Amino acid sequence: MILVDTHCHIHRWGNGEVAASPAYTKRGNNVRNPTRMASGGNDFDNSTADQYIHPLYCLMAVEEADWSGLLAISGRDRKEKKPLLQDVSQDTKEVVAVGLGIHPWKTQSVKSGWEGRLKEALERDPTLIVGEIGLDKAGESGKKSWEEQRKIFELQMKLAAELRRPVSVHCVRAYGIVYEWLKGRSAAELPPSVAFHSYTGSLDMAGAFLRLEHLQGSVFFGFSAAVCLRYPAAEAKLRQVLPILPKESLLLESDLDDREAVPGAMNTICDVVAEVKGMERNVLAEVTTKNAERFLRRALR
């Protein structure tokens, strides 16, 4: 059985050849560690994790310092281009897809000319997607950087639309703002597909995104144990939202830095989503793998 992790940051661990991003080295795993899951003590379930193969890790940058390392890890800085997805029916241990972008937490530290460098990197490799980008109003950092966040988010969304690249969106307490931005644009002004990673929005907001005229069939919702099961309230929201979401819109992810924790995290979120949707685990795995392929392959069309 195959599971696809459509949003993670395991590049922080390096691969013996490429150093981890300084930002992620500092970040650590204090709230992403499986032993510190939700206040109820729910750890990631590794009991059957060995049944799963993860042919695709989609590695997401958070700042420009990540970009060169990610390109080196993926091999996409070479002349020979790898396919974005290998045949997922094959027993493949890992296929890497890469997103480049500026995370909302990092908008205050961007260097002049970043947007030109991002566009140049994306133009060199049509398999790259745009991510992790977004808006985050939580905490003092969000308040201090809000205007810069919006400016940088909109620039990256416009670039993704221009170059026809999928986007992976981080959104905290700003779903209504993102919705209005998407709603106010034509199909040509929007990216070909949008994934809300580790979705924590409301039931009503999810329905509104699904009804957007110019993104029909192109809006995806990612769910992770690290975020969506982190607290009882987060899990309650997941259980409220999931029943209305079409199975064709679902993605699974770890949102982890720690490579070793990924199998258990993916196993856990697969179990919970399958339970809520009333699906067999192997069926959900097949559906979300196809969804990941649909989301990511749009960059090649």
Automatic annotation (TrEMBL):
<feature type="binding site">
    <location>
        <position position="132"/>
    </location>
    <ligand>
        <name>a divalent metal cation 1</name>
    </ligand>
</feature>
<dbReference type="GO" id="GO:0046872">
    <property type="term" value="F:metal ion binding"/>
</dbReference>
<dbReference type="GO" id="GO:0016788">
    <property type="term" value="F:hydrolase activity, acting on ester bonds"/>
</dbReference>
<dbReference type="InterPro" id="IPR032466">
    <property type="entry name" value="Metal_Hydrolase"/>
</dbReference>
<feature type="binding site">
    <location>
        <position position="255"/>
    </location>
    <ligand>
        <name>a divalent metal cation 1</name>
    </ligand>
</feature>
<keyword id="KW-0479">Metal-binding</keyword>
<dbReference type="InterPro" id="IPR053044">
    <property type="entry name" value="Metallo-hydrolase/TatD-type"/>
</dbReference>
<feature type="binding site">
    <location>
        <position position="197"/>
    </location>
    <ligand>
        <name>a divalent metal cation 2</name>
    </ligand>
</feature>
<protein>
    <submittedName>
        <fullName>Uba thif-type nad fad binding fold domain deoxiribonuclease</fullName>
    </submittedName>
</protein>
<dbReference type="Pfam" id="PF01026">
    <property type="entry name" value="TatD_DNase"/>
</dbReference>
<dbReference type="InterPro" id="IPR001130">
    <property type="entry name" value="TatD-like"/>
</dbReference>
<feature type="binding site">
    <location>
        <position position="170"/>
    </location>
    <ligand>
        <name>a divalent metal cation 2</name>
    </ligand>
</feature>
